[in-house]
Amino acid sequence: MRPVGASGVETRQRVEATALALFAAQGFTATGIRQLAREAGITSAALYSYMGCKEDLLASLMRGLMEPLLERSQTIATSDTQPEVRLRALARAHVRLHGEEPLAARIADTELRALTGDLLGEMLALRDAYEALWVAVIVDGVRDGTFACADTRLVAIALIDLCTGVSGWYRPDGRHTLETIATMHADLCVAAIRAPR
Amino acid sequence: MRPVGASGVETRQRVEATALALFAAQGFTATGIRQLAREAGITSAALYSYMGCKEDLLASLMRGLMEPLLERSQTIATSDTQPEVRLRALARAHVRLHGEEPLAARIADTELRALTGDLLGEMLALRDAYEALWVAVIVDGVRDGTFACADTRLVAIALIDLCTGVSGWYRPDGRHTLETIATMHADLCVAAIRAPR
DNA sequence: TAGAACTAACTGATCGATCGATTATAGTGC
DNA sequence: GCACTATAATCGATCGATCAGTTAGTTCTA
């Protein structure tokens, strides 16, 4: 039964926003499609107009964070600037997106294990490509003497993790702007591996 | 039907080890008690000899990480040493335990949202008490001029997160000993917030 | 010392509930 | 009239937890 004035575009947005909120708050598996549908204002059967299956919905939400993050970061990592400038910009981009999209970030950071098959492969590839950008920038910095570190991959992961917690606590009405927070994290990253003078 | 030679002590250990592995690999909610029981070598009914309910089991696994972590860290944070020494030791303790107990760490880091009521309150209190130790040490370091940072809480969380990723990749047969990795992380933490000279 | 009584360590079956996904159908809007 | 946007009902399956019962191991007592 189609309600008066129903719009597929709006309903899709509601479904996605509801899924973001519920998956982030209680986890993918713990969110049943009946709850998702009810809170999106439709029935569970109607959900399948907007998603292939539940796992497809999860993957698309995660993609919604990972793809822009990777894109922004690829541009930064390949820019013709000093490694320190690039590392700062990588950190900023990471914190910014995690602050702008905390729900998607939280899902992307915790629900990889809910994915199977090709979807899992795809998300792992995005994650690995993203990490590789950080590694490359740090390697450049070590090579030109800006940075010093004993294990580039370990450090890249540690710094990415350092920038990741924002999604758990940032609020737009908090003490600092997201830009300030992003800068603080960038400062921490650069200071952490700056080579001794 | 009691099997010949069955031992409650051994069975309990198997249940806990199985739960650690499964909860960490696929998530708490996605791990059904029939699977847990089967892989522990008993039936789902027998599980209830070893846990109050599924959520109780989760909480006890998380407690198994959080309590020693908090204990070790309390001793460190209240020791009569310089803030830098204490921060290094906090980071080491964190990385060490996350490397020694990667499964419990992974669960503690991702499954808080599966808890409800008093259990959730308890775990949140442990987490908050733990964070407060880092904050206190960093505050001391800022006060005595060793450290410089604009927002102590933000930095404490960022540094804890920096040390947390180990549980995702450390393997005992890897390139570095856990002690070396712990030291690297401690170095990153101290360098990240050391005051300019 | 043997058997009864008890405790420990389970089992198969069941309960009430929910799960993700599908199907036939129906109202809406252009 | 047809594409869109839903619905109620249903399917086959699984969920966490409980219950009545069974076997193994230990202790007690006559």
What is the topological layout?
Two copies of one chain form a homodimer.
Chain A: H1 8-26, H2 33-40, H3 44-47, H4 54-77, H5 83-100, H6 102-110, H7 117-143, H8 152-162, H9 166-169, H10 178-193
Helix pairs in contact in A: 1-2, 1-6, 4-5, 4-6, 4-7, 5-6, 5-7, 5-10, 7-8
Chain A binds a DNA duplex (30 and 30 nucleotides) through residues 1-8, 11, 32-34, 42-49, 53-54.
What is the number of E strands of chain A?
0
Largest interface: A-B, 35 and 35 residues
Order of helices and strands of chain A: HHHHHHHHHH
Q: Could you report the average pLDDT of chain A, rounded to the nearest whole number?
A: 96
Whole-number total of structural domains of chain A: 2
Structural class of chain A: mainly alpha
Fraction of residues in β-strands of chain A: under 5%
- The CATH superfamily of the largest domain in chain A is known as Tetracycline Repressor, domain 2
Number of contiguous helices of chain A: 10
Q: Based on the coordinates given, report the CATH architecture of the largest domain in chain A.
A: Orthogonal Bundle
Write the CATH fold name of the largest domain in chain A.
Tetracycline Repressor, domain 2
Would you kindly provide a brief summary of this structure?
The structure is a homodimer of 197-residue chains. By secondary structure, chain A is mainly α. In chain A, 71% of the residues lie in helices and 0% in strands.
Word description of this protein:
The structure is a homodimer of 197-residue chains. Chain A is mainly α. Chain A has helices at residues 8-26, 33-40, 44-47, 54-77, 83-100, 102-110, 117-143, 152-162, 166-169, 178-193. Chain A has two domains: 1-51, Arc Repressor Mutant, subunit A (Orthogonal Bundle); 61-193, Orthogonal Bundle (Tetracycline Repressor, domain 2). Chain A contains ten helices and no strands. The model of chain A has no long low-confidence stretch (mean pLDDT 96). The interface between A and B is medium-sized, with 35 and 35 residues. The structure holds a DNA duplex (30 and 30 nucleotides).
